[in-house]
Amino acid sequence: MIQDKKVLFSGMQATGNLTLGNYLGALKNWVTLSDEYECFYSVVDMHSITVRQDPATLRKRARALLILYIAAGLDPEKNCIYYQSHVSGHAELAWILNCFTYMGELNRMTQFKDKAARHADNINAGLFTYPVLMAADILLYQADVVPVGVDQKQHLEITRDIAERFNNLYGPVFTIPEPYIGKVGAKIMSLQDPEKKMSKSDENPNASIYLMDDPDTIMRKCKRAVTDSESAVLYRDEQPGVKNLINIYSACTGHTPEEVVKEFDGKGYGDFKMAVGESVISVLRPLQEEAARLERDKAYIDGVIRANAEKAGYYANKTLRKVQKKVGFPERVR
Length: 334
Ligand code: TRP
Prior knowledge:
This protein has 334 residues and is mostly helical. Helix content is 54%, strand content 7%.
């Protein structure tokens, strides 16, 4: 669409504090992918309000997330980094796609069932049609690939179904997106319950390392991480806590798990946890410093926000106009 490069779309919500898992599992890979693809990375604030938010907090977090994308190494000149709510095409396409999505399909979404159970007092229509907005995000930019975690795979499948349904009716309008399941996308688990994913919504603050944690906090959380009584740094499923720490260390240092096992042969968990803590600190400190620096450069960030919203809007409108025409909306007279 844009050049000879394939198009990639992904987004993150600015709800909760991002964790090391979000960084190592997603954001870090986005940076790697940004050379190969024409990338759109959105801060999906419209998805966030499917759950009640404090407005000031949402606004603050959305900006912090956008800054974090850049601090992590995404060049905003090459990657389109923008707020979903700044491009009205998302809402407009979502409406149209709502009319091509069945209640039955949405009823099968496991995330809806989970969230409806967790927010029983606010099962709003937006929560139900959340996957349709996500489909609009992706299809608006004719994305070829979408890097997502396993928890979002079902949403990508419904996106493909909606796109195929539309194309079957009206001709080839949408590119059918493929999921991009990263080769290296380290899945980081909770430090307190290594059978669970590290989550920004965990109630136990020791379970997750937050991207903005200071060095002492990071070290303390690593030292308190749940391990086992084997007293050997081995990479195996029987030692999920240790395995997770190896994955973290491996992702932070670039050493393979096998190398890590060799490095800590004969050493105790105390030494190992300390090294893990240090490796995390050495990754997060520059990220935090860069985020703080960008935070202070208000004019620069505002410029990025403006320019990229415009760029996103341009591509979004191209698709939107085509779709509007296909479904029979009257043409705009200039
Ligand atoms: N629903 C995704 C999540 O919570 C975020 C998201 C919204 C997204 N739109 C997207 C991810 C489009 C990939 C592509 O993780």
